[in-house]
Amino acid sequence: MNFKIDIPTDSEGFYSLECPHCNERFKALGGDIDAEEILEIFCPQCGLLSNSSNFIPSDIINHAKTLALNYMQEEVYKTFKKTGRRSKSSGLSFKVDKPRKEVPKLLTEDENLEKVELICCNRIIKVNIDQKAGNIYCPYCGVN
Predict the structure, then answer these.
(1) Where are the alpha helices (DSSP H) in the chain?
(2) What are the Cα distances from residue 142, in Å, to 2, 92, 133, 138?
(3) What phi-psi label fits residue 13: left (phi over 0), alpha (psi between -120 and 50 degrees) or beta?
(4) I need a labelling partner for 124 at 20 to 30 A (CA). Which of 15, 21, 73, 85 fits?
């Protein structure tokens, strides 16, 4: 059984990311962050390095868990619904109610992020307006 959950991007193709160390939010282009050679990234705010999968924000993880739970419940329902129909002739019967779907929390965009061009790696990221005035670490090479 395969189930695919896409991580949403904003209207310009940027993924929302969150540092596992300082919890600062920033965005990176999907094609840049998905590249096979990008296994670890630096936080633009604190400069600490971590596995790129650790930067997935908790709201996106919770959204994905809700979608996966709904999918799993629907698959279990389909399986037992068929079993319930087949077992009526044996004298056994049971009823399976359709599961109630959990509504995933809406994902909102960070509106106070501005684009920053990273000369070192020739890429663009989005960071908080306040952070833009300070030193920014490149998520790809760590240059400050």
Answers:
(1) 30-33, 58-86, 129-132
(2) 36, 65, 18, 5
(3) left
(4) 21
Structure tokens belonging to residue 109: 């965009």
Find out whether 16 and 10 touch, Cβ atoms under 8 Å. yes
The Cα–Cα gap between 87 and 93 comes to 6
pTM of this prediction? 0.74
What's the first-to-final CA gap in the chain, in angstroms? 44
Token pair belonging to 66:
């809700």
Rounded CA-CA distance 15/56 in Å is 9
The secondary structure of residue 112, as a DSSP letter, is: T
Pairing status of strand 49-51 against strand 113-118: unpaired
- For 93-128, write each residue's pLDDT tens digit: 667 778 888 877 766 666 778 999 999 999 999 998
Give all strands (DSSP E) within the chain, no chain letters: 14-18, 25-29, 40-42, 49-51, 113-118, 123-128
- 56: tokens are 């997935």
Burial class (CB in 10 A: 0-12, 13-18, 19+), 12: exposed
Please give the Cα distance from 25 to 44 (Å, whole number): 9
